[in-house]
Amino acid sequence: MANIQMVDLNGQYEKIRTEVDQAITNVVRSSAFINGPEVKDFQKELEDYLGVKHVIPCANGTDALQIAMMALDLKEGDEIITTNFTFIATVEVIALLKLKPILVDVEEDTYNIDPQKIREAITPKTKAIVPVHLFGQCANMNEILSIAEEHNLYVLEDTAQAISAKYTLADGSIKTAGTMGHFGCTSFFPSKNLGCYGDGGALYTNDDALADKARQICNHGMKVRYYHELIGVNSRLDSIQAAILRIKLRSLDDYCDARRSAADFYDAAFADVSEIQTPARFADSTHTFHQYTMRVPAEDRNHLQKHLMDQGIPAMIYYPVPLHEQEAFDHLKTGNVDYPVTVQLSKEVLSLPMHTELSKEQLKTITQEVLNYFKNK
């Protein structure tokens, strides 16, 4: 049996190596490294896949969030409501733009932002909501979109972990993660469900004016070369990464199916273990399982992680320190807000290996060692 990895990028690459190697060679021979034909083709193919009017490729997912906020003309001091249980990128761009992050708690079952907590956090200074579709499953967008409409707020979806997830809206229509708000923002970091072999990202929108402005911001604020109408940034997806993403996009549905199959295996193996809470699956959203993150008793979590790692099985904690406890955000502490669910999750969550190349033999080994821990503790 091959070594078990948290993410097996090399195994995935071996299956598409001939196509990838040829695509990279073609870009090098063309010398169209920046905004070349591969970028334009990838943009169009991703628009078609997502069912969205505009995809704006950029350098990484963090840039995508920043560019989206810049395009909305948010002003210093404007309040942006987002989740306390996520990777720091979601919140650091808010702080970098001198906006004010308002962190709220999450739902116990899905780990996604709690709409009721959003409602409670709205003030006259609130301008936007940034739901994060964590671990591969959409947040409660029906409620979030309703709140946003009621209070005239922007919605920026952070879909870095949930590309291709499908969501059923209240009117019965089905949308892809990232296409329901004013902007969707994603990352093509190598470990993502759709990942390149370096850094990459994109914004999505159905708004023509916002798309035009975001494209300008990505390119130093230019529409016409050397004529700068806006203060922008330099954030571009290079042609080699676009060429790789074009190949992998063709297999994205298969990749997500493989992840769901692995998640089904985990769910079945742990169904009778009272100490394990497997990931909830929200009825309105499909789950793409960027991570398989379960909950175990706090007193067991670190011991179980060590047990697995002693057996050569990687297991990760996403995320061990809530954002409100991070030193970088000390200045946001008000002393009168608590986050009981987020704090509890940070003590209980554990993510098992999850990728497209997991074999049944590997899954059996992983699950058996988890079962052994609880049987023998």
Measured distance between first and last alpha carbons: 27 Å
Pairing-aware structural class of the strands and helices?
alpha/beta
CATH level-1 class of the largest domain = Alpha Beta
CATH superfamily of the largest domain: Type I PLP-dependent aspartate aminotransferase-like (Major domain)
How many helical stretches?
Answer: 12
Largest sheet report: 7 strands, mixed
Low-confidence stretches: none
- Give the overall pLDDT as a whole number: 96
Give the amount of beta strand, in percent.
Answer: 5-15%
- What is the ordering of alpha helices and beta strands? HHEHEHEHEHEEEEEHEEHHEHHEH
- SS elements, strand count: 13
Count of discrete structural domains: 2
Assign the CATH architecture of the largest domain: 3-Layer(aba) Sandwich
Strand order of the largest sheet: 1-9-8-5-4-2-3
